[in-house]
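User: Okay, second chain of the day. Same drill as before: sequence in, structure tokens out.
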Amino acid sequence: ATTVTMPNPQTKIVSGNLGFLNRIKDLFFRLFNYVTTGKNWKSNPKLWIGSLIFLRLLLVFLREYGLTLNKKNLSKEHIFLTGAGSGLGRLMARKFGAMGAKLSISDINLPGVQETKEILIRDGVPAANIHVMHLDVCKRASITECAQSAKSTFGFVTMLINNAGIVSGKTTLDLTDAMIERTMQVNTTSHMHTIREFLP
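Assistant: Same drill. Structure tokens below.
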């Protein structure tokens, strides 16, 4: 029988189903035109029910033939991640580690980022894929040192994630000058310095 190859190279559909596929495509475009012309769904409840059934069948069809997104593979990526000692930074490190990325993780809290490494190893991330650094993003020299260390360990950094950030939780009038300056250094100025370190 003649076959039609779908986006997934392992998925094939026998030509006997082509008429069915064409009918689905035709119904889809009719529904799309109906929605985009702004007609009232309440004026035609049969179309409303039919569209719900159609969408359900479409989901079943896509699932049946394996037309799903492939899991992203980051094995060729080198990610430099700041603020990886806790919270969102740690979560991102775990997600990217599970996807095979080489991780240069850093934080001003060295015990915290070392704990992140231990968690990654328990998750199954190879220790050879993890490089831990102590980084104070307020200090230009610290950024340069960590950037050089990361590049010498895993090579060119392909992804930079400026996750490190602070918040005082105080009103503007209650902030001291030192708090304002540090907030700007960590949350804004440091981004400029890290970007400059890794631009080709």
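Residues 1-16 have pLDDT under 50 and may be disordered.

User: Thanks, on to the next one.
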